[in-house]
Amino acid sequence: TNTGAIKMIKLILLGTLITIVMAGCSSNESQTTTLPDGSKATVNTNRDGSGMTVQGNGTEAAIGTAAKISEEQLHVPFYPGAQMVNEKSMFVKAASEESALAYFTSKDEIEKIAEFYKEKLKGLEFTKFENAGSVNMISKEYKDNNGGRVAISLSKKSASEPVEIVIGWGKVSQ
Length: 174
Hints:
alpha+beta; 3 helices; 12 strands
């Protein structure tokens, strides 16, 4: 429908605004901007530029250290002992959708981490790729009990580096 297309365009415009503001802000700052459709968006950035929040037109977004992702928002348990990398996390909530992305590192073996998530999310499956010493395991899309969808990526670039765990969750309202 046209309404869906208009909402998508507004989200794209908001995403573009976020990118522009993140590139230009390095102090604790709050700005209100008028979007092309005439609506207002307020952008708050962290003093060190590591995170920001955006509110406008029924959409809330938190990026980087401002996101403060929880297990409740992610709808997936955190891997025990994993270290969250806040600067790479985000959360978006709009009238028609909600999504979260969290980034972690762990010194555990990649297979052990995959087994943890397979046990916690019954039916979750991973596909494993190996290339020149790196190992990647990517989950197939998993539908949770809340009507959302989960995807998990595990990556170990070399034997000396920790495993990177990236978890994405999203839900589109009808």
